[in-house]
Amino acid sequence: MIGTSDIRNGLCIEYNNDIYTVVEFLHVKPGKGNAFVRTKIKSLTTGKVLENTWPAGHKLNDVRVERRKHQYLYNDDMGYHFMDNESYEQVAIQEKLLDNPLLLKEGMDVDILFHAEKNVPLTLDMPQYMIVEVTYTEPGVKGDTATNSLKPATIETGAEIRVPLFINSGEKIKIDTRTASYVERAK
Hints:
Layout: E1 2-3, E2 12-15, E3 18-28, E4 36-43, E5 49-55, E6 59-62, E7 65-76, E8 79-84, E9 90-93, E10 109-115, E11 120-125, E12 129-137, E13 150-155, E14 160-164, E15 172-176, E16 181-185
Antiparallel strand pairs: 1-6, 2-3, 2-6, 3-4, 4-5, 7-8, 7-10, 8-9, 10-11, 12-13, 12-15, 13-14, 15-16
């Protein structure tokens, strides 16, 4: 059991017979009335995000989780398959537990959060940035560089993202895996 003063981003709690992770929190002490904690929590089984408010001092059930390094292998009708880098055991994760499954690249290292007591995968954390090659995009028209307009581009994983007009096929770019958006050209 933990108190509301122990709430932090990334904390896993048990609430309404489900496991949630804290996405965002704010301790509020109004001038009149009791203090409370306003949170946004995300279900690790369904992916739904809820807004919840607890009074200060409220007790919550925390869930012990372990973060383990895995390597992405492949996907099929059973889900996405990953291999533990230390024990070489394989685990399959359903697509609904992944934020951006189209950004996974074979051989990519990821962190998987496991429920410590049940040894069940809860969620997957990809590296924040990754460098990929643009496999197809329409060529940019000369003179269109004055505006911040974007065009669709297909990357090597098969995902489609929006890139600036000056990016051409065959170039390597850096993308943000949380938002699946273009960051900069790779050096």
